[in-house]
Design brief:
Layout: H1 4-16, H2 20-25, H3 34-44, H4 49-60, H5 66-81, H6 90-102, E1 114-115, H7 130-136, E2 138-139, H8 143-154, E3 159-164, E4 167-173, E5 179-183, E6 188-190, H9 192-198, H10 203-208, H11 217-224, H12 226-235, H13 238-251, H14 256-275, H15 289-308
Parallel strand pairs: 1-2
Antiparallel strand pairs: 3-4, 4-5, 5-6
């Protein structure tokens, strides 16, 4: 059963106007970042994926109406229920769920949901918000699988979030216990082999278990938390990024995305403290060289850890984020783009 008391706690914060900082003040042992306090609670309680996603969306964009969005999600779950035949099994329920969004009809006012070709990579962070997806009905490989996951949970389906290089998908457990990969951007089932071929997933990555496996609820919270990492990378100081990624790696020590975001935070500190001030490292004052070396080493070691697991990191970077001049950027493959060497590539 889900924790209705925790959902009520979150709604009390957002609806009454109580700030996360005020909520944090009651717990002297909580992390300094109030968003991390909430993230801890989201992962420690019975996980409600809808509450998790909408709460994270509100952290990124305070204009998100938490109560209204959660109500809208409940409404979509009900639209699926009324279309179900009596005594529908899990497979039938899943198929009706998919058609409710993909097939035009009165259930969606003849406005089916589809892939957003104008921003397929979700570079505009608003396009990753579930509230924005519900409004525009144009999604990406963040919003589309997570909406399926949220509604699947509400309908009693056994579903899990999974990741691939620069990509999210959902997995559906059939009645015989086997898991099926669901590519939400196209509404089709892909085998592991198809994902491995299209997204260049190496045998090392499959062996290490960083991709194409059903994430636990807590791990799914961590994967969804990457949305906050994306926001912090653009709008917060590196310390916030370091604190967040430390927690994400506590949830999932093999989270290579968190590793690279953490490496990026060390790079940002290097840039802020040294690269912008000193043309070459030998000009750094002797008293600061140990700090410079520590930050450089931390950055490089995180890339090495991700590489050892067979991880990918995004490309299309405007600037190096790796102390040995590797690239960093963003990519989100779709059925239209089918990952190519120009959109994603393995870590060097």
């Amino acid at each position: 059963m889900r924790s209705h008391s925790f959902q009520a706690f979150l709604l009390a914060i957002f609806v009454s106007g109580l700030s996360l900082t005020q909520a944090h003040a009651a717990n002297s042992h909580a992390p300094m970042d109030p968003n991390l306090t909430t993230l801890h609670q989201l992962a420690e309680h019975p996980v409600d994926y809808g509450v998790v996603k909408v709460t994270l969306d509100h952290m990124v964009d305070p204009s998100v109406d938490v109560k209204a969005t959660l109500h809208e999600l409940d409404g979509w779950a009900e639209k699926v229920r009324v279309r179900l035949p009596p005594n529908a099994d899990h497979y039938t329920t899943f198929m009706v769920l998919g058609s409710t969004f993909a097939v035009p009809g009165p259930w969606n006012d003849n406005r089916p949901f589809s892939y957003d070709l104008s921003d397929p990579f979700g570079k505009n962070i608003r396009n990753k918000l579930v509230s924005e997806y519900l409004k525009t009905r144009k999604g990406n490989c963040v919003s589309m699988p997570i909406l399926l996951l949220i509604l699947g949970q509400k309908l009693g389906l056994d579903m899990a979030l999974a990741t691939a290089p620069n990509h999210n998908l959902v997995m559906f457990r059939q009645d015989d216990g086997t898991w099926v990969n669901i590519e939400a951007t196209s509404g089709t089932a892909f085998s592991n082999e198809e994902y491995q071929r299209q997204l260049y997933i190496t045998p090392i990555a499959m062996h290490s278990g960083i991709y194409l496996r059903p994430l636990s609820p807590a791990e799914a919270v961590g994967a969804m938390g990457d949305e906050l990492g994306d926001y912090y990378e653009k709008a917060r100081k590196p310390k916030f990024q370091l604190d967040l990624t430390a927690y994400l790696l506590e949830i999932n020590p093999k989270d290579t995305v968190a590793m690279i975001r953490r490496a990026d935070a060390y790079y940002r500190l290097l840039d802020e403290k040294y690269f912008k001030k000193y043309p070459t490292p030998n000009l750094i004052p002797a008293a600061d060289r140990a700090d410079f070396q520590m930050l450089s080493k931390s950055n490089a070691e995180l890339f090495q850890q991700a590489e050892a697991l067979g991880g990918f990191y995004p490309v299309n970077a405007d600037t190096s984020k790796k102390t040995d001049h590797g690239q960093k950027g963003v990519s989100c493959p779709s059925e239209e783009s089918s990952a190519t060497s120009s959109s994603v590539r393995p870590l060097a």
